[in-house]
From TrEMBL:
Gene3D superfamilies: Aldolase class I. Pfam families: DHDPS (PF00701). This is N-acetylneuraminate lyase. Its EC number is 4.1.3.3. It is found in: Cytoplasm. It catalyses: aceneuramate = aldehydo-N-acetyl-D-mannosamine + pyruvate. It comes from the Eukaryota. Pyruvate binds at residue 215. The active site is at 143 (proton donor/acceptor), 173 (schiff-base intermediate with substrate). Homotetramer. One of its GO terms (cellular component) is cytoplasm. The gene is 106066007. GO terms for molecular function: N-acetylneuraminate lyase activity. Belongs to the DapA family. NanA subfamily.
């Protein structure tokens, strides 16, 4: 029987951090200590590691285990640590799931494999059931990022079919841009599941729909905090202003290519260098970084340092 509390929820504002690398492409995990300080100083209460911005799918299983251990070592006393353990095959995900529980993460999340894809929701649940069973005492989340995986299934139906079969299933991270699907997830099975939003552009909309926990870029924490505070007191003008700023930053990102490279470039501009990205993703050129600095100068990121 799972020891996971049925009322467990991820609270606050969660960042999707980059993975620090040395110039030669090796892990640079000592940088995680400074990264934790940066996040805590900027309204972040949790991290979703090894997702898209963390280049999880570009790392080996061994590297992913090392990254997980580093975030637990340096961050678990100050941040909730959610480890993404999705992989290209079932056995790797099971291995990562088991390891993450052993080192003491707060929760796990697993996306669908994306080469051989599950044909329907029932097969997806069969897959997730085995991955979650490898860490039965750790809260487990399905991670829907269909625009990257190409797996376009009904997420609410996955939750419904998994209810009762996966004892430690607590909810879903929805990075899908489909708001009706997000709404369906908030109400399926009587609204029992914890739903997190993984889209910087839908922060205000998601709060209106009752989704209180966003997973955002590392530099977005203060924007989200101001937006939520404004929403809670009915200050819609300020809330819309903050969402517009988040949207502006996303539009800037679209000018510069792949999100991990953009994210690391922004953090470097803000004084937190985390090294290069790993091929096939490519870094921004020095010229583009200079252009990015000019674009960011127009945005109030309100970054603080501890």
């Amino acid at each position: 029987m799972s020891k996971v509390n049925a009322n467990f929820k991820i609270e606050g504002i969660v960042a999707a951090p980059a993975t620090p690398l040395k110039d030669n492409g090796d892990l640079d995990l000592e940088r995680v200590k400074d990264y934790v300080d940066f996040l805590v100083a900027n309204s972040i209460t949790g991290v979703f590691i090894l997702g898209t911005l963390g280049e999880g799918m570009s790392l080996t299983v061994s590297e992913r285990k090392q990254v997980t251990q580093a975030w637990v070592k340096y961050g678990i006393d100050r941040l909730q640590v959610i480890a993404h353990i999705g992989a290209g095959n079932l056995r790797d995900s099971i291995d990562l799931s088991r390891h993450a529980q052993q080192v003491g993460v707060t929760a796990l999340a697993c996306m669908s494999p994306s080469y051989f894809r599950p044909a329907n929701e029932a097969i997806m649940v069969d897959y997730l059931e085995q991955v979650a069973a490898a860490a039965p005492d750790t809260p487990f989340y399905y991670y829907c990022i269909n625009f990257m995986t190409g797996v376009n299934l009904n997420t609410a139906k996955i939750l419904e079919l998994a209810d009762g079969r996966i004892p430690n299933l607590r909810g879903v991270k929805m990075s899908s841009r489909e708001l009706p699907s997000l709404l369906d997830c908030t109400s399926v099975c009587g609204g029992k599941f914890d739903v997190m939003i993984g889209s910087d552009e839908q922060l205000l909309t998601s709060v209106v729909l009752g989704v209180r926990t966003p997973i955002v870029s590392s530099y977005m924490g203060n924007i989200v905090q101001r937006l939520r505070e404004a929403f809670d007191v009915g200050d819609w003008e300020t809330a819309r202003t903050e969402q517009t700023l988040a949207r502006k930053i996303m539009l800037i990102s679209h000018k510069y290519g792949t999100s991990p490279a953009f994210g690391k470039a922004v953090l470097k501009c803000l004084g937190l260098p985390l090294g290069p990205v790993r091929l096939p993703v490519v870094d921004l050129t020095p010229e583009l970084v200079e252009n990015l600095k000019n674009d960011l100068a127009e945005c109030d990121l309100s970054i603080r340092w501890s």
